[in-house]
Specification:
This protein is mainly beta and 168 residues long. The chain contains one helix and nine strands, in the order αβββββββββ.
């Protein structure tokens, strides 16, 4: 075994002391903050406006009734009203809506706000619309629809497109 000269021992001791000493760090840490911001405004949207389908009809000796559920969502506290126009059938009004066929025929129908089908659903705010206050979630509004007893039009497909408007 080889021994080191005594003159070299202090050097080894110095190296060992240096190796055991904590290393001085030249790195530093800085922090900063930032904000995450958003501004919510009063808002409403129509989630769904499903078709109203009376199915197959024949001689109209009695009312044909069905329903559909319109779903809206508004920010909490937002007052709104839901309006339905007269539809696209020729001669349609809020109280006397009409579906039309390609052959020029028409089939009367009505849209109501109540289960008894006595309150027309129209587009005059405060008179014949349905209102509410948003809660941040989906709110369902049932449309009560009726094809009233009437003289049967010619066979064929009948349709009307109704526009839903949410005012807020």
């Amino acid at each position: 075994m080889r021994t080191l000269p005594a003159s070299r021992l202090p050097s080894l001791a110095a190296i060992a002391a240096f190796a055991m000493a904590p290393l001085a760090s030249s790195a530093a840490t800085k922090t900063a903050t930032f904000q995450v911001l958003a501004t919510m405004v009063s808002d409403c949207t129509i989630i769904s406006a499903p078709n109203i389908d009376f199915g197959t009809l024949g001689v109209m000796t009695a009312n044909a009734d069905t329903t559909s559920t319109l779903i809206v969502a508004c920010t909490p506290g937002t007052a709104y009203s839901v309006a339905l126009d007269a539809g696209t059938g020729t001669g349609s009004t809020i109280t006397d809506r009409r579906m039309a066929s390609a052959g020029g025929g028409s089939l009367k129908y009505q849209l109501f706000r109540d289960t008894m089908r006595t309150q027309n659903w129209g587009n005059t705010i405060g008179t014949d619309t349905v209102g509410g206050t948003g809660n941040g979630g989906n709110i369902a509004h049932v449309i009560f629809a009726r094809v009233p007893e009437q003289s049967a039009p010619a066979p064929g497909s009948y349709a009307s497109t109704v526009t839903v408007t949410v005012n807020y």
